[in-house]
Amino acid sequence: MSETPAIRVRGLSKRFGQLLAVDHVDLDVPRGRVYGFLGPNGSGKSTTIRMLCGLLTPSDGEIEVLGLRVPQQAEALRRRIGYMTQSFSLFADLTVGENLEFIAEILGVPRERKRARIAELMERYRLADRRKQLAGTMSGGQKQRLALACAVMHEPELLFLDEPTSAVDPESRREFWEALFELTDAGTTLLVSTHLMDEAERCHRLAILDRGRLVADGTPGALTSALGGRTWLVESDNPRRAQHALVEAPGVLGVAQVGHALRLLAADGQGEDWAAAVEQRLHGAGLSALLRSATPNLEDVFVAATRSVGPGGAA
Amino acid sequence: MNLRRLWAIMQKEVRQLRRDRITLAMIMVMPIVQLVLFGYAINLNLRGLDAAIVDQAQTSDSRALVMDMLATDVIRPVATARTPQGLIDLIRRGRINVGVVIPPDFEARKQDGRAVAQVLVDGSDATVAAAAAQLAQTPVDSRLPDLHAPYASTPPVPRIVVTSFYNPERRSAVNIVPGLIGVILTMTMVLFTAIAIVRERERGNMELLIAMPLSRSELMLGKVVPYVLIGLVQTTVILVLGRWLFDVPIRGSLLDVYLAALLLIASNLTLGLLISSRAQSQFQAMQMTFFIFLPSILLSGFMFPFSGMPRAAQWIAELLPLTHFLRLIRGIMLRNASLLDLWGDALALVVFTTVMMTAAILRFRKRLD
């Protein structure tokens, strides 16, 4: 890409007392794409986003967002980015219309454009019939649409969304993602954090975070295909016992029950021989077992990435 | 500083306040209830009143009388004047609480058994008036205690006359009510802004606000200004009710009364902001507010006379906005002083406001860490 990346981060760290919440993270987020931060709670996603927005001061490292140095130039950056906080941060005791108006005034939307812009956003995010409703009395999905409308009020070049769909039902989530892709079509860069695999799959590119470290980075397709041949489905008459038998087995990174079957993730470099050995192990424990190769998914990617580098990792 | 953004913050505050029915009710009910409660009480004794003495007789006996008066510790000379008119002027400007006049014909009056001295009292402070009455008990000639022995069966002629200025009937409501403006404003104004910023933090709005292109001073000022109006409304409620229920006069200019109130409002709001920038929760903010509020009531001279306090307590009291406001408002409302006459206390409030506002803005970081 000829343009500079939307976000460029080198050696970013954040320490809270004894806890190293973000540990030397490097990132390059391209423009015009949906970039995902995937990781469990406490993996440093929110902390990283807050540092990128200039809300937290990094303990170490360099951040450049839209060509501006953060946190030094954070004030100038604020007019060019949108930030949708993890929990609802608009005013519960103001109406939808009042919230939008407040945000428009603060962001300096030109007076002659303001009415039209608010009407447009209320139309697009289906808030028009809620104009006079207090924001605090709306459903999770409605609050989230209002928060998105406010975050894009000034048509930011870059939009940060911190676990935007944590409080909404699947139907609203699908609708919300459609709205996000509409924004990328218009050229906006999006950085979305999530702990949901199905959401991560929608991203153009992903960074996987675990305990403050960036453990994998790439397109969902590249990340999953890198695991080719390492994922297996185990069919057994007693999946619970089979799981116990396999947890400690050599070369096993992860075992998870999926319905009646077990999903098995092998360490790197394990082939058909290993599969046969696993079957043997189960037979030895008096269990029926049949191993079939499975298509890797992002959960496998996540397990592989976090198990192979974690301090207590099996491999 | 961008006026449009400032206005947006102010508008938001007013809209939120309008929906907060209980707080709105408190704003109106509190002054009324407190006025009625306090309006009928409080009277005390004291010592160490600021005084000036004009001895126009300058005889050995008149000097002895002055020494005796000083020996009671009720008064303490802090200023000098040559004429009774000079004393009245000092009282009006709030320099002294008590003036003692010994007329040139002191010796003759003493022989005739007429009043030999006059004690001029700032009656706008009920406690001062009470103390001055005590002063009048000073025997005129301690060496001749039996001077009036033959007349012992009849009530003795008062030898020292007490003249109370500004509150001749010594009604405590007259000086409680102006002070009450200060107490109500201290209680409500500090609390309102003390919780203003913490509340945004607790409700999760702060992350949104600091992620916005808003300057610290825009946010702080925008939150404070709407409460100035509320403070002026409360002032008006107390003035009107004080007039109606207790017949409290406003002898000075109404403009000065409101200017003084404005100064106190600004001091308290900025103090509240500073608390708000420190407190982690609304509960903490309230605790800190009461930490300030209690000494304000006790040390400012509202409840207990300023003159009676030990020096250290007086120094602390000088740091409290309410102390200065009480001097201002009693002077203006009861003694017809102007704000200019009392410029020292007005200046103290301006300085206090500036320091607090600056500290609050500097302390507030547009960061979450």
Word description of this protein:
The complex is a heterodimer of chains A (315) and B (369). Chain A is an alpha/beta fold and 315 residues long. Chain A has two domains: 7-224, 3-Layer(aba) Sandwich (Rossmann fold); 228-295, Alpha-Beta Plaits, CATH 3.30.70. Chain A has helices at residues 45-53, 74-78, 96-106, 111-124, 140-151, 170-185, 197-202, 220-225, 239-247, 272-284, 298-309, and strands at 7-16, 19-29, 34-38, 60-65, 68-70, 81-84, 158-162, 189-194, 205-210, 213-218, 231-235, 252-258, 261-266, 290-293. In chain A, the strands form three sheets. A six-stranded mixed sheet of chain A has the order 6-7-8-3-9-10, sandwiched between helices. Chain A has a four-stranded antiparallel sheet with strand order 2-1-4-5. Chain A has a four-stranded antiparallel sheet with strand order 12-13-11-14, sandwiched between helices. In chain A, a hairpin with a 2-residue loop joins β12 (252-258) and β13. Mean pLDDT of chain A is 89; it is low at 309-315. The relative contact order of chain B is 0.13. Chain B contains 14 helices and five strands. Residues 142-158 of chain B have low confidence and may be disordered. In chain B, α6 links the parallel β4 and β5. The radius of gyration of chain B is 25 Å and the shape is elongated. Chain B has two domains: 3-39 and 171-363, no CATH class; 49-165, abc type-2 transporter like fold (3-Layer(aba) Sandwich). Chain B has 369 residues and is α/β, with parallel strands linked by helices. In chain B, strands 2-1-3-4-5 form a five-stranded mixed sheet, sandwiched between helices. Chain A binds chain B through residues 50, 53-57, 71, 74-75, 78-79, 83, 85, 87-94, 98, 102-103, 105-108, 134, and chain B through 2, 4-5, 7-9, 11-12, 15-16, 19-20, 203-208, 210-214, 366-369.
Layout of SSEs?
The complex is a heterodimer of chains A (315) and B (369).
Chain A: E1 7-16, E2 19-29, E3 34-38, H1 45-53, E4 60-65, E5 68-70, H2 74-78, E6 81-84, H3 96-106, H4 111-124, H5 140-151, E7 158-162, H6 170-185, E8 189-194, H7 197-202, E9 205-210, E10 213-218, H8 220-225, E11 231-235, H9 239-247, E12 252-258, E13 261-266, H10 272-284, E14 290-293, H11 298-309
Parallel strand pairs in A: 3-8, 3-9, 6-7, 7-8
Antiparallel strand pairs in A: 1-2, 1-4, 4-5, 9-10, 11-13, 11-14, 12-13
Chain B: H1 3-19, H2 21-39, E1 49-55, H3 60-71, E2 75-79, H4 84-92, E3 98-102, H5 106-112, E4 117-122, H6 126-135, E5 160-165, H7 172-202, H8 205-210, H9 216-246, H10 254-278, H11 282-299, H12 311-318, H13 321-335, H14 343-363
Helix pairs in contact in B: 1-9, 2-7, 2-9, 7-9, 7-10, 7-11, 7-13, 9-10, 10-11, 10-13, 10-14, 13-14
